[in-house]
Design a protein that fits this description.
Number of strands: 10
Strand order of the largest sheet: 1-3-5-6-7-8-9-10
Largest sheet: 8 strands, parallel
Helix content: 10-25%
Distance between the termini: 51 Å
Shape: globular
Strand content: 15-25%
Structural class: alpha/beta
Radius of gyration: 19 Å
Order of helices and strands: EEHEEEHEHEHEHEHEH
């Protein structure tokens, strides 16, 4: 009952192949003082469609402020979205999402998995309602073993309207693009204090092969247009890009100045 930190990791769940929301809820009800939850899914098992949380059920973990979710391998996006129904995200101030697609030399990596995982974790708010993540101030996103898919920043920023500090750890080849149109649509940067981007090599053994690292034409907009216009980032104090790749050129570095 006095537990304040809880860590759970599900790997290769078998039995009947199904998880149970009621079991999670019962466990969380036993630990009402948990403030920090770390949850990991590395399993193809999911929840039965009829296993749902009742609308009149009281929220679990009422003191939860820190939530760290890791998703690996064959985990279904439906597993993520169903699990999130037992978490009252309105109390969260610190949020972390770590995504890793297991490498298979005999199978191509699915680019759509990344977006589906993020959409399951950060669902769209209904029209006229506030974001369920409105109190999140710090957000971390780590992506490993994915191809160079477009990073769905629009969904992230639209879901986290008051986030102040953002940290992105992404593989080489991802594009960072801030679009004027969706900034005008409500993805406010007015509360942003810091943006940290760490780029890691896709193949640490072979090292950098001098493929495109980041689209610095797009990345440059973090410090210039459109963010520097009309007060979109009036409180942005720090932008940091970290990389150990040897082909990170002087020209690319200069574009961040």
């Amino acid at each position: 009952e006095n537990v304040t930190r809880l860590s759970i990791r599900l790997v290769d769940v078998f039995e009947d192949g199904f998880l149970k929301l009621t079991c999670f809820r019962r466990l969380f009800d036993w630990m009402p003082k948990v403030q920090s939850l770390s949850m990991g899914f590395d399993t193809w098992a999911t929840f039965k469609k009829e296993d749902v949380i009742q609308i009149n059920d009281l929220p679990t973990l009422p003191e939860l402020t820190h939530f760290d979710l890791e998703v690996v391998g064959d985990t279904l996006s439906d597993t993520i979205s169903r699990f999130m129904t037992v978490i009252d995200t309105r109390t969260l101030t610190h949020l972390a999402l770590r995504l890793r697609q297991r490498k298979n030399p005999f199978q191509d990596l699915d680019e759509s998995v990344l977006e589906s995982w993020i959409e399951a974790f950060l669902p769209k708010s209904s029209p006229g309602t506030s974001s369920s993540f409105a109190n999140v101030e710090e957000f971390t996103l780590e992506i490993t073993d994915f191809p160079g898919s477009p990073l769905p920043l629009k969904r992230i920023f639209m879901s986290l309207p008051n986030v102040r500090d953002i940290s992105l750890k992404i593989p080489q080849g991802f594009n960072i693009c801030i679009d004027q149109r969706w900034l005008e649509g409500g993805a406010s940067f007015q509360h942003r204090r810091s943006l940290r981007i760490e780029v890691v090599s896709k193949d640490p053994v072979r090292g950098c092969q001098c493929h495109p690292l980041l689209s610095f034409t797009d990345l440059g907009t973090i410090r210039s247009d459109p963010l520097s216009n009309d007060g979109y980032c009036s409180k942005l104090e720090k932008v940091e890009v970290k990389t150990r790749l040897t082909c990170f050129s002087a020209k690319e570095k200069a574009q961040l100045q």
